[in-house]
């Protein structure tokens, strides 16, 4: 592909809207990095073991005020929502969203939506969105 | 972003058309789906726009009734492509494709200045794979008309196909579309 041709760059908000609209197929694993939608390859057993070991070690090192999350979305910047293998975030994340940070998302997204019936695709995407709000913005000093 | 081991999401045409229906794109955002990639259509300069108008006039006259000359309109080319070529000639009237985009134009024309290499390689192979029999590039850099015909399988080529015959015509030459063989168009009439 030549330089004269540009691929579409997605913003994080557009990406989250695509998730809400259930555009992606079931089991399709993606992450947004620098405006590009990247396919997350299936992981082999050594890799999964590695993630488990790292998570265990970090859990032992960090205290109860921290959560160790494996492969959950991080609202990194305007054009990125990666799903790092491991991320350590402060547990105050849900409170911290009210602080004015460039990454902060509308607080109403953080209120747990009442569940109607079973766990639909929509509620799954809401859940994902809620998780995705735990961005790097959640610094302890925001409290 | 062509890092090894990293794959960009490959869109199907059905997914792309759903995105269009859902209004997932920004207002005024011009895109086309080429081989699974969502490409941004660059704004066109005045020579480009003029050339498209001139070609439209010439093709309309050459083909006449029973054909439609479409400009910058989607073509349902294959499972992972919905390009919007500068011009495409399709059988029938305008309303023929109100429910679905046409998939087999008898002629596709791209006007190329900055996109020349892409139109010659990527797009030509894509159109060859879809068995588009007559593909023209109006090359604004060299003021020539490039004609690509005889699509054929070519395992080494991108998309597994390429055109077997290439003809280059200067301003004083004439061209006859394959689907309107009794007509002649002067290349100079197409150049801005």
List strands and helices in order, with pairings:
The complex is a heterodimer of chains A (143) and B (192).
Chain A: E1 6-7, H1 12-20, E2 30-33, E3 36-39, H2 45-61, E4 66-70, E5 86-90, H3 93-96, H4 121-132
Antiparallel strand pairs in A: 2-3, 4-5
Chain B: E1 7-8, H1 13-22, E2 31-34, E3 37-40, H2 46-63, E4 67-71, E5 87-91, E6 107-112, H3 116-129, E7 134-139, E8 144-153, E9 161-169, E10 174-175, E11 185-186
Parallel strand pairs in B: 6-7
Antiparallel strand pairs in B: 2-3, 4-5, 5-6, 7-8, 8-9, 10-11
Molecular structure report:
The complex is a heterodimer of chains A (143) and B (192). Chain A contains four helices and five strands, in the order βαββαββαα. Chain A has helices spanning 12-20, 45-61, 93-96, 121-132; strands spanning 6-7, 30-33, 36-39, 66-70, 86-90. Mean pLDDT of chain A is 73; it is low at 95-143. In chain B, the strands form three sheets. A six-stranded mixed sheet of chain B has the order 4-5-6-7-8-9. Chain B has helices at 13-22, 46-63, 116-129, and strands at 7-8, 31-34, 37-40, 67-71, 87-91, 107-112, 134-139, 144-153, 161-169, 174-175, 185-186. Chain B is globular. The longest helix of chain B has 18 residues, at 46-63. In chain B, β8 (144-153) and β9 form a beta hairpin. Helices cover 22% and strands 29% of the residues of chain B. Chain B is built from three helices and eleven strands, in the order βαββαβββαβββββ. With 192 residues, chain B is α+β, with helices and mostly antiparallel strands. Chain A binds chain B through residues 1-2, 4-8, 14, 17-18, 21, 23, 30, 33-34, 36-39, 41, and chain B through 1, 5-10, 15, 18-19, 22, 24, 26, 29, 31, 37-40, 42, 114-115, 117-118, 121-122.
């Amino acid at each position: 592909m030549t330089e004269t041709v540009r691929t579409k760059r997605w913003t994080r908000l557009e990406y989250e809207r695509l998730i809400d609209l259930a555009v992606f197929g079931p089991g399709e694993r993606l992450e947004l990095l620098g405006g590009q939608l990247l396919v997350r390859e299936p992981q082999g057993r050594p890799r999964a073991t590695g993630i488990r070991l790292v998570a265990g070690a970090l859990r032992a090192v960090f205290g109860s005020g921290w959560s160790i999350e494996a492969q959950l979305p991080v609202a990194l910047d305007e054009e990125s929502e990666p799903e790092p293998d491991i991320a350590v975030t402060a547990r105050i994340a849900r409170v911290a969203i009210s602080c004015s940070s460039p990454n902060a998302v509308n607080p109403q997204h953080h209120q747990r939506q009442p569940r109607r019936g079973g766990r639909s695709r929509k509620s799954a995407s809401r859940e994902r969105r809620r998780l995705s709000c735990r961005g790097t913005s959640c610094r302890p000093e925001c409290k | 972003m062509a890092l090894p081991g990293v794959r960009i999401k490959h869109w199907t045409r059905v997914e792309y058309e759903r995105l269009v229906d859902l209004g997932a794109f920004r207002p005024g955002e011009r895109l086309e789906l080429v081989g699974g990639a969502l490409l941004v259509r660059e704004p066109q300069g005045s020579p480009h726009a003029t050339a498209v108008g001139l070609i439209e006039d010439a093709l309309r006259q050459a083909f006449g009734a029973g054909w439609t000359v479409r400009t910058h309109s989607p073509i349902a080319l294959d499972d992972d492509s919905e390009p919007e070529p500068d011009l495409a000639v399709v059988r029938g009237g305008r309303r023929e494709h109100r429910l679905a985009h046409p998939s087999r134009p008898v002629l596709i024309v791209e006007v190329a200045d900055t996109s020349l290499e892409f139109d010659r390689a990527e797009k030509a192979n894509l159109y060859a794979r879809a068995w588009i029999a007559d593909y023209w590039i109006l090359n604004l850099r060299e003021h020539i008309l490039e004609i690509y015909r005889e699509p054929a399988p070519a395992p080494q080529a991108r998309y597994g196909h390429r055109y077997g015959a290439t003809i280059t015509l200067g301003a004083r030459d004439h061209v006859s579309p394959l689907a309107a063989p009794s007509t002649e168009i002067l290349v100079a009439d197409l150049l801005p």
